[in-house]
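Risk mitigation, structural track. In case the binding assays with adenosine-5'-triphosphate fail to produce interpretable data, a predicted complex structure has been prepared as a fallback.
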Amino acid sequence: PSAMREVMVQKPNVRWEDVGGLDDAQERLREGVELPLKNPDAFRRLGIRPAKGFLLYGPPGTGKTLLAKAVAREAEANFIATKSSDLLSKWYGESEQQIARLFARARQVAPTVIFIDELDSLVPARGGGMGEPQVTERVVNTILAEMDGLEELQSVVVIGATNRPNLIDPALLRPGRLDELIYVPVPNEVGRRRILDIHTARMPLADDVDLDSIARRTDRFTGADLEDLVRRAGLFALRQGIDTPNVNARHFEQALEDTRPSVTPEIER
Ligand code: ATP
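Fallback model:
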């Protein structure tokens, strides 16, 4: 029974304005990915080699996948998402084949952003990962060979993501590979305010809803936590009656009682 997966090419519809509180990360991706993918000739003319690989690292739910989708969309590139557990096959040779197909497809539909999530699980089981040592080593080597084979300006960029950068195989981080490290932090109050705006954009809010105050009171909430908070507030409004016209401050209070930040101080950098 083969576990070979079809390589799915997406055209994400996430825009920069859908990402809140990650200005630094966004700026680095604009310069490092969007600019070269959109202006390869200018880079060629000036003899600049753009990076082939980026590593987004930070706590879960802070927007790493969202950023990767947004940069693909803004660069008018295709997007292929995978995660390392999809690449780990116990069938001999199948991982290599899957990775080869992934990169072949990416080249075929270039410009392309390849997103590889859960990169930290590409370490042997002993190191906290999920794979058998020989399999993970072969997967890492195959990815490295494919990346080494990417010509500069071939318009395929690899973006990896992890919650635990210290577990990443150092070979993946060497120059010419995933050598641009970008931290994706838990948002501060200003970032949280922006994220609340994004996720309430299509929600009718009562006048008593004070998003500034909610932003102030949600220390350590990630973007995913805030999205969840807003969704719960909406559900409390619905629960009050199917024809409730809007979501009010009390619904948000109820949601706040229900929601805890998923990031504890220990796992925050
Ligand atoms: P993981 O490490 O678990 O894969 P991640 O960092 O990739 O998490 P995302 O999958 O991008 O997190 O975030 C989940 C959802 O949370 C997003 O689809 C989005 O709706 C919301 N979200 C997270 N971060 C942000 C943000 N900075 N701005 C707006 N929405 C966000």
